[in-house]
Amino acid sequence: MTSFTVNGNPVHYKMDPATPLLWALRDASNLTGTKYGCGAGQCGACTVHVDGVARRSCQVTIGAIEGSFVTTIEGLTSDRSHPVQQAWVAAQVPQCGYCQSGMIMAAAALLAKTPSPTDDQIDESITNLCRCGTYPRIRAAIRRAGEMAAGGEPIAAAPPPKIDPADAAAAVPALSPGPRPR
């Protein structure tokens, strides 16, 4: 059995220790924010933090991180209040959105060690791929998040907290079936 901590919760996986962390997170823990991209560690869609370091979870086995602390996009914050998440929304970074959780995790790790990165430092540290090509917005969002984390002006319109699906459904008017076509 392999044991470590995921998003602050101890986990014990009864899986082969050679199982990639990506599949343990997605299949066993139902943490689907960590995306499968290439499976070769090239694209970064599966980026998570292992002991505070951005790692490609498709390339890390669960046996190799016994006793470690893993943070996924779901564990970064519970209410999307992390400066990177807020800056991402303000800069309208996502286009298709598939790579975004890995990008956000890579950016958060970068800002934790380099609070005011230059464009060269961003380019060197964030090697994740974005097929939509939103790199200029990504760089702008990372710079803005660094400013916010350093005590700069917060973003006025933070993303909304989690919405209860029942509340969201109640806000949508029910459609009446109307007459049936003949």
UniProtKB/TrEMBL annotation:
Keyword Oxidoreductase applies: yes
Region Disordered, residue ranges: 152-182
PROSITE patterns registered for this protein in UniProt: 2FE2S_FER_1, 2FE2S_FER_2
Xref: SUPFAM superfamilies: 2Fe-2S ferredoxin-like, CO dehydrogenase ISP C-domain like
Domain named 2Fe-2S ferredoxin-type: residues: 1-76
InterPro entries for the chain: 2Fe-2S-bd, 2Fe-2S-bd_dom_sf, 2Fe-2S_ferredoxin-like_sf, 2Fe-2S_ferredoxin-type, 2Fe2S_fd_BS, Beta-grasp_dom_sf, Diverse_Oxidoreductases
Keywords: 2Fe-2S, Iron, Iron-sulfur, Metal-binding, Oxidoreductase
Amino acid composition bias (Low complexity), ranges on this chain: 166-175
Name this polypeptide is given: (2Fe-2S)-binding protein
Organism: Sphingomonas natans
Taxon lineage: Bacteria, Pseudomonadati, Pseudomonadota, Alphaproteobacteria, Sphingomonadales
